[in-house]
């Protein structure tokens, strides 16, 4: 019995070490930029959850910038420069680009509700309709972690945050994503590693409980 336990422990140690190393790596390197605070704009958010990035940016800068005009839409809305748009608006307009990856009509509604709840005026709104995603099935969209909505625009509950963080963490643990992410840290970025990233993020189990290759 003792020999069996020793063998079991010896067999389990490498697995335990790998799991610990994987978890430590997630918190040290913060691949989706969710653990620590950053000042990232939409242009830098290619590998990140754009909805989270723009919402966090709004939360950080609105107290001083006092935004009152908003551009809503998918990442394609980045073609509309808020500063250029401001020249066509009235005096005192403070525009902000509130874009998100594959933004839906529900996502735009959630942002408007978030602004209303926080008593942020919306004097001007530019909504860009992307036929590829505007009426996209929200439940299907949430199978891709980088397209999930910022929990604060939902009910801001523990459950919302747990689901959001869990989805990103389990995407990180997928072998395909690990190849892409740590390959990039080692300076290896080619068609093979990029393809791993696309497959890992795009094909994600709805319940976020299964990690597959």
Highlighted features:
213 residues; 3-stranded parallel beta sheet; 8 helices; 3 strands; 7% strand
Describe the structure.
With 213 residues, the chain is mainly α. It has a domain at 37-165. It has helices spanning 2-29, 50-65, 82-86, 105-117, 138-141, 158-172, 175-185, 191-202, and strands spanning 69-73, 95-99, 124-127. Strands 2-1-3 form a three-stranded parallel β-sheet. Helix 7 packs across helix 8. The longest helix is centred in the N-terminal third of the chain and has 28 residues, at 2-29. The protein is elongated, with a radius of gyration of 20 Å. Mean pLDDT is 82; it is low at 203-213.
Number of strands: 3
Strand content: 5-15%
What structural class should be given to the helix and strand makeup? mainly alpha
Average pLDDT for all residues:
82
What is the ordering of alpha helices and beta strands?
A: HHEHEHEHHHH
As a percent range, the share of helical residues equals: 40-55%
| Side-by-side strand order of the widest sheet | 2-1-3
3D shape? elongated
Number of helices: 8
Instruction: Compute the separation of the termini in Å.
Output: 36 Å
Low-confidence stretches: 203-213
């Amino acid at each position: 019995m003792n020999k069996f336990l020793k063998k079991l422990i010896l067999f389990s140690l490498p697995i335990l070490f790998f799991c610990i190393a994987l978890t430590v790596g997630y918190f040290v390197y913060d691949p989706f930029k969710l653990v620590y605070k950053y000042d990232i704009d939409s242009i830098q958010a290619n590998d990140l959850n754009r909805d989270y990035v723009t919402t966090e940016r709004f939360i950080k800068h609105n107290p001083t910038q006092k935004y009152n005009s908003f551009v809503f839409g998918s990442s394609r809305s980045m073609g509309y420069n808020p500063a250029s748009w401001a020249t066509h608006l009235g005096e005192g307009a403070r525009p902000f680009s509130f874009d998100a990856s594959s933004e839906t009509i529900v996502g735009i509604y959630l942002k408007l509700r978030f602004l209303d709840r926080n008593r942020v005026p919306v004097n001007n709104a530019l909504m860009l309709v992307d036929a590829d995603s505007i009426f996209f099935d929200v439940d299907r969209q949430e199978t891709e972690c980088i397209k999930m909505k910022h929990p604060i625009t939902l009910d801001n509950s523990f459950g919302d945050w747990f689901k959001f963080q869990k989805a990103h963490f389990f995407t990180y643990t997928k072998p395909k994503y690990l190849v892409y992410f740590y390959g990039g840290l080692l300076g290896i970025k080619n068609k093979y590693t990029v393809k791993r990233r696309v497959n890992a993020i795009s094909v994600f189990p709805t319940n976020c409980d299964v990690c597959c290759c």
